[in-house]
Amino acid sequence: MNILFAASEAHPLVKTGGLADVAGSLPRAIKNSQQDIRLILPAYPAAIANAGELKPVAELELPGAAAPVRLLQGRLPHTRVRLYLVDAPEHFDRPGGPYSSPQGGDWPDNAERFALFARAVCSVAMDRAGLEWQPGIVHCNDWQTGLVPALLSMEKQRPATLFTVHNLAYQGLFDQDRFQALQLPAHWWSMENLEYHHQVSFIKGGLVFADCITTVSSTYAREIRTPEFGCGLEGLLEHRKDSLTGILNGVDYQVWSPGRDSLLPYTYTAHRPAAKQKNKTELQKAFGLPVEPGIPLFGHVGRLVEQKGIDLILKLVPKLLQRPMQLVILGTGQKDLEKALRKAHRAHPECIGVHIDYNETLAHLLEAGSDIFLMPSRFEPCGLNQLYSLRYGTPPIVRGTGGLADSVIDATGTNLSQHSATGFVFKNANSHDLLQAIDRALELYAKPESWKNLMMTGMQEDFSWTRSAAAYIDLYTRLLDPQRPDHNAPAEDYFAGHSGTVN
Known about the structure:
By secondary structure, the chain is α/β, with parallel strands linked by helices. It has two domains: about 1-250 and about 470-495, Rossmann fold (3-Layer(aba) Sandwich), CATH 3.40.50.2000; about 275-460, 3-Layer(aba) Sandwich (Rossmann fold). The chain has helices at about 20-30, 45-50, 90, 110-125, 145-150, 175-180, 200-210, 220-225, 235-240, 275-285, 310-315, 315-320, 335-345, 360-370, 385-390, 400-405, 415, 430-445, 450-460, 465-480, 490-495; strands at about 1-5, 35-40, 55-60, 70-75, 80-85, 135-140, 160-165, 175, 195, 200, 210-215, 245, 295-300, 325-330, 350-355, 370-375, 395-400, 425. Strands 3-4-5-2-1-6-7-11-12 form a nine-stranded mixed sheet, sandwiched between helices. The protein has a six-stranded parallel sheet with strand order 15-14-13-16-17-18, sandwiched between helices. Helix 15 (about 385-390) links the parallel strand 16 and strand 17. Helix 1 (about 20-30) packs across helix 20 and helix 10 (about 275-285) packs across helix 14.
């Protein structure tokens, strides 16, 4: 199969979150299954710098670009995956991140930037770039590529389209004047197309027009069809439920495995786990905590935002101080949460360690050196840190939502006796339920043999990309079935009789 994989970021070229991990790992796993998959993303300065050898292979005349757009070709580092970078300096050659300026605010022309990227993807998809190659599948990811299925819907003999939602909360919403500037079909400014509450929604381009929609866990695929998790799009997603599926993300065990992790001071395995204790000592030192081998050490790494439940942890600080435990937290995010964490650390430096930063080496050490990983997310489409924690012998405490529910088996008495338990799962996003899970973990930690069995079960779980890639390949195969229904028009039967915007 020929597959074009379109994303706005990919590790190790450029990364802001989990999408980059997926875009940097999934294409490699699919390529290893003997499929011709190629990755396309914008030519940010970081992407060009990290890509290695590149050569221009095409020039594209695209609406919205004052000059021809170059297509640069190379390889995704350390893989056999062919890489295309869309080189439009006016849109992508700038400091800061992929979506925001060095000062932190979103680029004001993000609508124009990613509309241009979508048009470049469509040029490659329709074999108009002179590459003498056309995909049968275009796999798009998140709102930044949402216009691709919409634009391809106007083409004859087009490839099939698959749209993956990594986080429905980020929808690519822009004012109406932006829609008018994008030179899109006027009738797309309607509730049955791209309009959403008097704004243009890029993510609706994927949700309405793609032949198939996936998201990054089975539970999240069900959750986003409900008002609690649907972000206002649950009606549309419920209508498209027969085209919606969930495939859990995988882990790149070449990078995230304690037996080969080059960023750890000490490596260890499930069969030889003793060096985990040495990493704990190094972690305690790194966060300025007393080196106490026997005290349970809880860790958290991630974006410091309410979605991740950091505020729930902060509310528990007075009660946590009454328990024999230490806590280390690494990340950046909302300024109020950063401030509150710094305050907690200053007040209790003997048991709370905080680094307001993102440091890849320290993130690996935190996974290896912690005894227990805290991940009390309010919602979590997939989550990766709980998967890392399992492999590193660091049983996670998670809320039973999204990919967390799909990947962590609660340490109930039955599951422990059957050696299937891998962590601790709580139901409701509140501090009371989180504290109960923490206390259950502390109780089991005090039973060394039971704790060792829990660790070993988690370390032997397999969440490699091989399994996820096989599920995507099966989905691609079904999409290429000649009997698949034509999807060149949006699902008008859903919108019939509705007025206003989608609920």
